[in-house]
Amino acid sequence: MAVIRKGEKRGMPALSTSSLPDIIFMLLFFFMAVTTMKEVTYKVKVTPPSATELQKLENKSLVRYIYVGEPTREFREQFGSATRIQLNDQFADVSEIENFITMERTAMKEEDQNVMTVSIKADKDTKMGIITDIKQALRRAYALKINYQASTRQSF
Amino acid sequence: MARKLNEINASSMADISFLLLIFFLVTTSMNVSTGLTRRLPPPLPPDQKPQDIDIKKRNIFVVKINSLNQLLVQGEEMNIRDLKEKAKEFVKNEANDVHLPEKFTKEFETLGVVEYTRDHVISVQNDVDTQYQAYIDVQNELVAAYNELRNELSQLKFGKKFDELNETQQNDVQTVYPQKISEAEPKNYGGSN
């Protein structure tokens, strides 16, 4: 039998938030899957050159980066504004590259060692002299797979 | 009778997971890095001087970039916009010109008999003061020339783009048009001194 309630105040029932954590967790897992950890903090300013025929860099764990550019503002006083090389979190000299590559390679798994890629992330206004020096150092270190990082652009 | 356990209050769960989410958003980056992949030649033994490998003059395509980012292609000044066409013409040598690279005939499993310029080399030489962007532009145009040639051949033989071919077909097309871009030993060219 239907009971007709009259006079009772009928408010909105409280919205159940018990599924909220699950939704947020889903979001969290999504972001964990599609993003990668930041490589390093930049100490040099890098605006990569642009190109059209680009390939994606796959297998980030096999890639080591060399940054080339002018020091950022907070390091200007200490290091001047000439183009510098950054390896991991430190400024470095061309002569240190060989050592750096060898160290990084020995830290890798054996089967990965000869598929290591070195990605050169250089500012577009860098002079080729320094890039050539880096390339020669990489050759001496037998890191022959290299990648020039560039951003996408439409043709001219 | 067992006393009924109080339910744990789970309302702070959302806040905790929010915190985690924000932490991951801050520490990670989403950008995919892209670039031009190249292979360097192996190092020379330290006691050996760089020697000029004997390559017939018609088989070599020289691109020089000076300190003002100007191009000298095969001895003549050129705009970067024309480089791709010139490189394609060189690699393909459609008319069997005596000044363009020699052609060889080879039979492929998937392509049939193809005439191609087996021994051609593209040599990129730059000055110490060349701007990195100019160098990347040249590399990019040369890669673009090869990609277009590969796509043209794939389209002609299989009616598909190069990316859509299967592995053996891709390998054969790559043998016809390998990316032979050599980076010379660094030398000093005039213009900057």
Chain pair sharing the greatest interface: A-B, 55 and 48 residues
Strand line-up of the largest beta sheet of chain B: 5-4-3-8-9
Quaternary state, please?
heterodimer
Give helix % range of chain B: 25-40%
**How many separate helices of chain A?**
4
- By DSSP (H or I, 4+ residues per run), the number of helices of chain B equals 4
Into which percentage range does the β-strand content of chain A fall? Answer: 15-25%
Q: What Rg of chain B, in angstroms, do the CA atoms define?
A: 27 Å
Biggest beta-sheet profile of chain B: 5 strands, mixed
Average pLDDT of chain A, to the nearest integer? 85
| Major pleated sheet of chain A | 6 strands, mixed
Distance between the termini of chain B: 97 Å
How large is the share of residues in beta strands of chain B?
A: 15-25%
Helix-strand pattern of chain B: HEEEEEHEEEHHE
Count of beta strands of chain A:
10
Structural class, from helix and strand content of chain A?
alpha/beta
> Could you give the order of the helices and strands of chain A?
HEEEEEHEEHEHEE
Unreliable stretches of chain B (pLDDT < 50, length at least 5) are none
Topology of this protein?
The complex is a heterodimer of chains A (156) and B (193).
Chain A: H1 20-34, E1 36-37, E2 44-45, E3 50-51, E4 55-56, E5 63-71, H2 73-79, E6 84-87, E7 90-92, H3 94-106, E8 117-122, H4 128-140, E9 145-149, E10 151-152
Parallel strand pairs in A: 3-10, 5-8, 8-9
Antiparallel strand pairs in A: 2-5, 5-6, 6-7
Chain B: H1 13-27, E1 28-29, E2 34-39, E3 60-65, E4 71-73, E5 76-78, H2 80-92, E6 104-108, E7 112-116, E8 121-126, H3 132-158, H4 167-176, E9 181-183
Parallel strand pairs in B: 3-8, 8-9
Antiparallel strand pairs in B: 3-4, 4-5, 6-7
Helix pairs in contact in B: 2-3
